[in-house]
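Late entry, evening session. Most of the bench is empty. Finally got around to the prediction I had been postponing all week. Sequence below, unchanged from the version circulated by S.P.
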Amino acid sequence: MVQRLARSLGLGLVLALGNVSLAQSQVQPGTRLMDALFVDHAVLQRDRPIDVYGRAAAGEPVTVTLGNATANARADAHGRWSAQLPALGAGGPHTLTASSGSRRQMARDILIGDVWLCSGQSNMEFAVRSTHDAYNEAALSANPRIRSVNIPRGSSAAPREDFDTALEWKLAAPGNTEHFSAVCYYFVRELQKSVTDAGQPVPQGIIHASWGGSRIEPWMSEGALRQQRGYAPALKLLGEYRTSKPLAFMHWGDTWQKWWTSQAATGGKQPWLSDGTGDGWKAAPAVLDYWETWGTPELSRRDGMVWFRARVNLTAAQAKQAAKLSMGTIDDVDVTWVNGRAVGNTFGLEPRLYDLPAKLLKAGDNVVVSNVHDFWGNGGLYGPAADRALVLADGTRVSLASWEYQVAPPDLWPPHAPWETLNGVNVLYNAMIAPLGRYGLRGIAWYQGEANGGLDDAKNYEALLRGLMADWRRQFGAPLPWLVVQLASWNALATSPVDSGWARLRDAQRRAVAADGNAGLAVTIDIGDRVDIHPMNKQDVGKRLARAARHVVYGEKISPAGAQPVSARRVTEGVLVTLGGFDGELKVIGSKDPAGFELCGATQESCRFVRSELRSVTKVGEVLLADAAAASATRVRFCWADSPLCNLFDTTGLPVGPFELPIN
């Protein structure tokens, strides 16, 4: 998806900012006193005590200074220390210093302002350089009062205290801004138009932690997931993975195998046990690479599962040695067996190297089988053939060669291992959120849900989102406001009522925000792209997030998200839907009457489009749904599809978003 210059107006400032960036102190993990976020150009949260923390020798005293303020701390038995400085108003620049004995770390050009944690999946990760008018947006972006730090992608089975690499705050400027999260950049840029202090725009800091394709569950802590139904088995397996990967792989293999044999399409076959030659296996090319390159018609555009098998012959002396199985790189996820026992499972492009349990290998033929599931793009085993081998304790590498394959039935979607990066549990929180500690924030912006948009998944999303909100508030030790971007429209238009997982998820987002009391919703149903799950118009998304923040965070008396459903009740003419919470008036665009209303009974089959009439348009909106069979309906749905046509707006241009309501 990812798709340059200084104009005379900003050339001097651009050059100055570039020189500042070059002076950035590169403090590496293990050498610093302060945690990773406390480096040059950072933004610290205004108007509240400032927590600064890091690592030193156990029992070692640490002194922290910021401007004229000083605080003292002492490292605990684990080397962790934390100090609190008094609150400061918006401004700067300041220098933040931590000293302990002969060690001293300085963070220069520190601003005090509002700090936002922006997280989610690909639409939050989507960069400025890929949005509409990207060239001009980047070229004219120089603003030293907007700064962003990108949290590196990472996955961990256990919570981390620090990041693997140094972090770097970057100032908005050509060459930097184009790499910022577009949604979050446009959000804070819009905020600066109204959020000022002494006539100056308040500095805005962005902490961006997203990963495209991720579900919500990997972003939640273990404690938060334990409060949700059905996650105890996955968390138990993840605990095993932390302490004994071979044991966890074996147990996951049992789970995976039960799923496979329960599928009618597999016909009861168990390819991981197969050691014959007449059972559907075919010779694979000598150079494996992506299977789309093999010239085999059934694999030329294959997204799905393919089985691979190889044999390796060992002497008795070799079989007695401790060994590892190297499978090289696999796209996207594998489950791998040796002699019928599951020994590995990994998602992504990291090289596979699996420890083999004692006594698993034997003299003579040993069978290695791997099921490879490719979600999108190219798939298969690739990289040098030498990477696929048994690695014995004495250093001997016994190559795996003469590979065979068989294509699995189509449309099989196996369960996901709990340690899987994007589809597991807890692992992104552990690596990308937990190390943030209790860094001061003004609020959180969340744009995620596409990966949870299946019909069954969406049923649980409201509880998960509410759990995530509570979880991160606990993490940061504050009742932080949450700003949630509701999913935009995407996919083909529906010609009849459908039960849409995306519609369910949008309504779950709406309900979670409405129930929270300290959250806002950015409705984007009208600014999606039917043929692109990543719409390029992120400017309006940012504006709508900013509007929600102006109400929820800054207390402006404006509608945060346009008209919201209030009730649906029976009247003589049919069903009357009441809407509230909007500014100005309601109006219909492109038609006389609102479109997209449905009346439903208990089943999906009972849902039908109905005529609607906008009766009241100010303060309280009323829409009459007239239908001969209205008495049998039990619920109302509006704009209920992946990509609905919604034509009801308020005067400010905000759409009425999708919803479902019971009829009272």
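Two things to note before I forget:
Residues 246-407 form a domain with the Jelly Rolls fold (CATH 2.60.120.260).
Residues 49 and 86 are 5 Å apart (CA to CA).
Will write this up properly tomorrow.
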